[in-house]
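Appendix B, example 12.
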Amino acid sequence: MLRFELLSAVLGLVAVLAAFSGSGRADSRGGDEVRVNQLQVIGTHNSYHRETSEAEQDAYDALISTPGDYDVFLKYSHAILSQQLARQGVRGLELDLLGDPHGGLYAEPLVRRHLGLGPLPDPAWGQAGTKVLHVPDLDYDTTCVQLVACLRQVRGWSNAHPEHVPIPIMLELKRSDPRAGAQRGVAAPAWDRAALDALDAEIRSVFAADEMITPDDVRRGGETLEQSVLGHGWPALRDSRGRVLFLLDNDPGPIRDAYVAGRPSLEGRVLFTNSRPGLPDAAFVKRNEPRGTNTAQIAELVRRGYYVRTRSDVPLQTVIANDSSMLDAALASGAQLVSTDFPQIGMSARYDSDFVAALPDGGPARCNPLNAPRGCRGDKLERGG
């Protein structure tokens, strides 16, 4: 009997030690301490997007000389951002941005001029500030015109649900469309260093420092951002609930170079840049295609400690084919952010499809299948969401 009791005591001690292994200590809300990069969530692609009218869609096709192009790629619409968060379980967003420092630059798109419809009726188009839309002059209907207005929606929902998992917000910084430009379309201003500084300031005008996760929150003294992420990891979930983080969608190039100029590890910046492993600012990496050999490549990035975004579908080919192979690969890859245009049951029914991108357990977030600690519990990741 004594031998049995001794064995039971040893096994109990092993279990206790296991609960505290790896991350150093336990998180009372979710087992072993879970970190921001040890989750997986579904986000929306072009989260603001609304379809234009049938007449405007036809004019779009006529102006770009590709009949049916709008139907193939752009015929989908999203709910307002706060409803996506509240009712669809979305925990990631994407906004396309264009500079408009004086206001009115995108107020009368080429398509509307072609149809004689006049300027867009929402007065927000005439106000100064970064605008949220897909393609200037051609595909411009949006649930929130001004970036600040979009972010206020997110912040309002976040403040009402302070225990939500961190919300990644992708920002793609866009330029004029050359097809429209050739027909006297708008000339969007460049995303130079001054414009990027102004973008950071706009974001900070909505979200306070303690409502965001920024590169400064991740980087350790004396190390690059990449060294910090790979060597020490991302912040703990228990310290990050109720926050947002901003990710630069643009591929490495002139915009990323301007953003990191003089700040190689994103010192003082808001956005995490889409970078390449081996560079000082590399913490976030975008890999839109998760299938084939990319599945293993994404998995390796996730295991090393990078935060990765991929996609589960491409409008509208995926939905029309009712093909879940991209979704299955995205979920299996361990990419922390999986973006979709169809996050809700029924959205694809108009195409005689049942496609929907959702996590296997149906929740707003799950323990990452590749790197979550052993004690992670999906039902404890978020409260009051």
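Residues 1-31 have pLDDT under 50 and may be disordered. Residues 215 and 269 are 7 Å apart (CA to CA).
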